[in-house]
From TrEMBL:
PANTHER family: ALDEHYDE DEHYDROGENASE-RELATED
Annotated protein name in UniProt: Aldehyde dehydrogenase family protein
A Pfam family per the record: Aldedh
Gene3D superfamilies on file: Aldehyde Dehydrogenase, Chain A, domain 1 (3.40.605.10), Aldehyde Dehydrogenase, Chain A, domain 2 (3.40.309.10)
Active-site positions on this chain: 250
Aldehyde dehydrogenase domain: residues covered: 27-471
């Protein structure tokens, strides 16, 4: 298998020049300005069929390589991402809206390179299950075949790498379908990666819902990886039934955080803020409802408000900004409607909640909502934007009960000056990951997955690799 030399693109316009169709295509707009960023190809189901066939033809040769050889390709892919980091980050900022600085566009591109390197480093040896006078049994993990990856618009590049890196490492080939909102970012990333990867092991098909539906049901696809809403995840489960596909689903979350009465509000305020407002709140595992003990409730609300006031929001290419617009108008409307309903119910708007409708772009101000009931829609529904409800509680049992009351369980957090007390509370929360004194801090070495309707299957680390392989026991 041969590869082309790594190409470096000086600007995001140079990247666009190689991924835009020669004619036609669908215009993608900057969510901060409404200006055209570029044109995305409008691939069809027929284009998907061609991509799947190419990936299927390439898989045996790719799967025949050793783990070390495939890891070498991932390391070269990481180098290629870093060689094009600024062009990729600017394109991402313009298409998705997130600022260059803070935990945003440059951070995301850097995370892509780091995840590729980490995935290349994991050791996955056959596991000896039995080795005695009765015989020997070994557990191996073989390639599944062709993996279908369907990604979201909030972290389009990062989540694409979360899907493709372990898939490729395990010897599968990949056909990706990016969100219709952010196809350019994924097409550009794939172009950079394909400069060093063997031909046809990674394909991107930029199409509509019909393309995604066909990918989920296609008989050649052995596994689907999906990050997105629970409703779409359920549709994928139904579509996959006839072919009994393997699935990894990271679905909707409405993560709870519990602040224990011994916490120091001033010390935790910035951690709480970024747990909730990273990527302007558009993160599956962001802190979306915060339960604070009545003894420190007002102090915590005030400390959060002080942090919020210091975080500038605006166009992503302005180096001063760390918060950006919502990526699309539909999401803006969801957030605005939930905040308006909370205000109408008598909740207290501490800061924000007053968007400037004359301003171009989908900007919704950083909003803190206090004195709100637990059954208010802003609490009970996932807002996926820059609005955080803060709920008062009296006892730990009450807080845990409220945190567990919803049918989602992606992540959660506990905030306390006493780690032992926080761990005890964490053990009672129904979520795939519970962080202590932080929220949403994912690590490529640490498995990540949801509970309840937040999905199933694991990503990251050696366990994540195993979920991209077909287990096979050899017994003799």
């Amino acid at each position: 298998m041969t590869t082309e030399a790594t190409t470096s693109f000086a600007t995001y316009e140079d990247l666009l020049a190689v991924i835009e169709p020669a004619a036609g295509g669908r215009e993608i707009l900057d969510p901060a300005t409404g200006q055209v960023v570029g044109r995305a190809p409008e691939h069809t189901v027929e284009d998907l069929e061609a991509a799947i066939n190419a990936a299927r033809a390439a898989q045996p040769g790719w799967g025949a390589l050793s783990h070390a050889e495939r890891s070498g390709f991932l390391l070269r892919a990481a180098d290629a991402v870093e060689a094009n980091a600024e062009a990729l980050a600017v394109l991402l900022s313009r298409e998705q809206g997130k600022p260059l600085n803070g935990p945003n566009a440059r951070f995301e591109v850097g995370g892509c390179a780091a995840w590729l390197r980490a995935t290349a480093s994991f050791e996955l040896e056959p596991e000896v299950l039995v080795d005695d006078e009765g015989g020997r049994a070994e557990l191996h993990h073989r390639p599944i075949g062709v993996v279908g990856a369907i990604g979201p618009w909030n972290w389009p590049m990062m989540i694409a790498v979360w899907q493709l890196a372990p898939s490729l490492r395990m010897g599968n080939t990949v056909v990706m379908k990016p969100s219709e909102y952010t196809p350019l970012s994924v097409l550009a990333l794939a172009h950079v990666l394909n400069g060093v990867l063997p031909g046809n092991v990674l394909q991107v098909v930029s199409g509509g819902r019909d393309v995604g539906a066909r990918l989920a049901e296609h008989p050649v696809i052995g596994k689907v990886m999906f990050t997105g809403s629970t409703a779409t995840g359920k549709a994928i489960i139904r579509s996959s039934a006839d072919t009994v596909k393997r699935l990894t689903l990271e679905l909707g979350g409405n993560d709870a955080g519990i602040v224990l009465p011994d916490a120091d509000p001033a010390a935790i305020a910035e951690g709480l803020f970024w747990g909730a407002f990273i990527n302007t709140g558009q993160t599956c595992a962001a802190l979306k409802r915060l339960y604070v003990h009545e003894d420190i409730y007002e102090e915590t609300v005030a400390a959060l408000a002080e942090v919020a006031k210091k975080m500038p929001m605006g166009h992503g290419l302005d180096e001063n900004n760390v918060l950006g617009p919502l990526q699309n108008r539909a999401q803006y409307d969801i957030v605005a409607n939930l905040v308006d309903a909370a205000r109408d119910s008598g909740a207290r708007i501490v800061t924000g909640g007053n968007p400037d409708e004359s301003r171009p772009g989908h900007f919704y101000p950083t909003t803190l909502v206090a004195d709100i009931d637990n059954d208010n829609p802003l609490v009970a529904q996932e807002q996926f934007g820059p609005a955080l409800p803060i709920i008062r509680y009296s006892t730990i049992e009450e807080a845990v009960e409220k945190a567990n009351a919803l049918d989602v369980g992606l992540g959660a957090s506990v905030w306390s000056s006493d780690t032992a007390a926080a761990r005890e509370v964490a053990s009672r929360i129904q979520a795939g990951t519970v962080w202590i004194n932080k929220h949403g801090n994912v690590d490529p070495r640490v498995p990540f997955g949801g509970a309840k309707t937040s999905g199933y299957g694991l990503e990251f680390g050696v366990e994540g690799l195993k979920h991209l392989g077909q287990p096979q026991v050899i017994s003799y």
